Amino acid sequence: MSLMDPRDPSERVSMETNNANDAYREARERLDARLNKINHIVREHAEQQFKDKKSWTFVGDLNNVIEILDQAIEFMGGTKETTT
């Protein structure tokens, strides 16, 4: 299998695919795996917050992640959520 020179090993793109649709499907599977991992980590984070209900650190963590996700949403052509 030949691979493009990656910035990070997790960003390697298989050059064995014959078309953009196959490459897109592979990239989508990698994205879905990362989204599932984020959900798992957030659940663990919530458990930690439950044990330390007075700490504002957890709120800051989530707000930072929300900002990063808003950037990704806008990059993909969506509109970020606004709070009122």
Give a short summary of the structure.
The protein is mainly α and 84 residues long. The protein has 2 helices and no strands.
Features:
84 residues, mainly alpha, elongated
Detailed description of the structure:
The structure is a single chain. Helix content is 61%, strand content 0%. It starts with 19 loop residues before the first helix and ends in a 9-residue tail after the last helix. It is mostly helical and 84 residues long. The longest helix is centred in the middle third of the chain and has 32 residues, at 20-51.
SSE inventory with pairings:
Layout: H1 20-51, H2 57-75
User: Class by helix and strand content?
Assistant: mainly alpha
**Could you tell me the radius of gyration in angstroms?**
17 Å
**Global geometry:** elongated
Residue stretches low in confidence (pLDDT < 50, at least 5 long) are: none
Q: Biggest sheet, open or closed, and with what strands and sense? A: none
SSE succession: HH
| N- and C-termini, Cα separation | 51 Å
Count of helical stretches? 2
Mean pLDDT figure: 86
Number of strands: 0
Beta-strand residue percentage: under 5%
**Percent range of helical residues:** 55-70%
